[in-house]
Amino acid sequence: MCGIIGYIGNKNCVPLLIEGLKRLEYRGYDSAGIGVIKDGQSIIVKNKGKVSELQAKVEQLDLEANIGLGHTRWATHGIPNEINAHPHQNSDGTIFLIHNGIIENYKPLKKILSQEGYKFSSETDTEVIAHLIDSFLKKGFDFFKATRLALLEIEGTYGLAVLYTREPDKIIVARKGSPIILGIGNNENFVASDVSAVLAHTKNVIYLEDGEIALLKKDDYLVRTITDDEVIKEVQEISMTLDEIDKGGYPHFMLKEIMEQPESLRNSIRGRLLLEEGTAKLGGLDNIIDDLLDVDRFIITACGTSWHAGLVAEYMFEQFIRIPTEVEYASEFRYRNPVINKRDAVFFISQSGETADTLAALRETKLRGGIAIGICNVVGSSIARESDSGVYIHAGPEIGVASTKAFTSQLIVLALITLLIARRKNLSLENGREIAKAISRIPDQVAEILKLNDKIEEIAEKFKDAKNFLYLGRGYNFPVALEGALKLKEISYIHAEGYPAAEMKHGPIALIDENMPVVFIAPKDATYDKIISNIQEVKARGGRIIAIASEGDEEIKDLVEYVIYIPHTIAMLKPILTVIPLQLLAYHIAVKKGLNVDQPRNLAKSVTVE
Ligand code: F6R
What we know:
Elements: E1 3-8, H1 13-24, E2 31-38, E3 41-48, H2 51-61, E4 67-73, E5 88-89, E6 95-100, H3 106-115, H4 127-138, H5 143-152, E7 158-164, E8 171-176, E9 181-184, E10 189-192, E11 204-207, E12 212-216, E13 221-225, E14 236-237, H6 253-259, H7 261-269, E15 273-274, E16 279-280, H8 289-292, E17 297-302, H9 304-321, E18 325-329, H10 330-335, E19 344-350, H11 356-367, E20 371-376, H12 382-386, E21 389-392, H13 405-424, H14 429-450, H15 453-463, E22 468-473, H16 478-492, E23 495-500, E24 517-522, H17 528-540, E25 544-550, E26 562-566, H18 574-592
Parallel strand pairs: 17-18, 17-19, 19-20, 20-21, 22-23, 22-24, 24-25, 25-26
Antiparallel strand pairs: 1-4, 1-10, 2-3, 2-4, 5-6, 6-7, 7-8, 8-12, 9-10, 9-11, 11-14, 12-13, 15-16
Bound molecules: fructose -6-phosphate.
């Protein structure tokens, strides 16, 4: 969630750091700062608020340096203000550092350091690291060893980069629980929490693993474990291009990402669908496919939108694979002493692949012998690397904080997994072909729905001042109701709830009056008649109804104020279509309210703390 960028080389690092921070701003953005070494002195500039404000401040200073660090902060300890922003330094300013993660034992460490005479100026957990390194330097260790020894004292998580003015040709970088990469250039090197920050300069990166520490010079690097064993690292080439992480002419990343779903879905399917054989090919599952046919249970854990994708998968897996499936929030799963054994296959769905709770649930599963399968978007992310096997969703970089294209790609990949396993079990060739064909048509059908953008914008205009929204759906579309409500509340700050439509009578119906917009997800499927009854119940109480319905459904028109039609597909794939209008509705409402849809308040793209 916080962003890290660092540079060492011959160029002026200041504009490079600011540019890198702008690329990282989507991860967390309550404050930002840079620190450089110039003429043997540290210079730190920090600011509450946006990177652009930091940039204005830096530009007034006319600063130039060849080594420096930059950070965007998403507060965990201490309010978002200038003092708590990173970099943090020791008392004489010779050491400064930037940190992502949480130092769990910072209070006892702070107490010990205070007793030794160290003075703290911020409320952060991070500041203890600067003083702790200082205390080891004072014992006579060199910079690298002092940092390594300090980190051995630390409990918690960190992605960390440290500078020391007396050894100004080195950046020390370490990782435990928070992602960090080294960007390897030509006579210049970078450190970043995310490849997007360095992509403009190099495509060659080294992923640090937990427990590793690196010494980075402008023309050299060295990686060891925190316990001082040698590590040989492979330099990997990134295939993502800068164009892919730009807005591509759209006013917001979120709209761009909604609009590119036909393409992202095509990418998710590409090379994986066998139409004739009526099945799917997923190389990432080859090593465990036989085990998957014979497991007792599927468990799916995830957070937020990815959890909603998991709920849809529960319907898919149980309908077609006929293996009992449980879906659980990763945060609950990891802490409740879950029963997991060798005959359980546990899926970890995560766009970022870095969500702290999902990653912890994965580690717990592996410890207990379950089969761990990652469904991730970010290639090389922690969940992807630590899973026994897995499938990338290939949605491309998702920058808008509200997840859109990753959700639909997660759903299509889960459909491919369902098809693959179901065909290996007892799904007929005919049914397999039907599903495969339906999957292949989804990208074009999504493109059709996106043509309704103007109409959805008009609906948004009518409802933008509502204070509450209710989203109702049944079966496969119940999770879509949850997702529609989540999209609206996170970017428009309108209170919204998703419910299984039949549950409405058990409570939420009391909320319905002429001020309550109710979005019904009501495509033609097995529960259609029932949902029409639910619509009648809302109409009888004066509720204002928007329906997402199947094209050709004339009956529903007379019952509701607005209807948005989606093309026909099989039930398991309907959520991929029904969610699209809900993404657009949330987007337009938020824009009309003048809100920052790409960076909604209090939220971060990648939640790497618990
Ligand atoms: C909502 C949203 C979040 C994420 C959640 C999990 O739009 O983006 O709810 O889905 O934080 O993130 P990942 O999928 O990266 O594990």
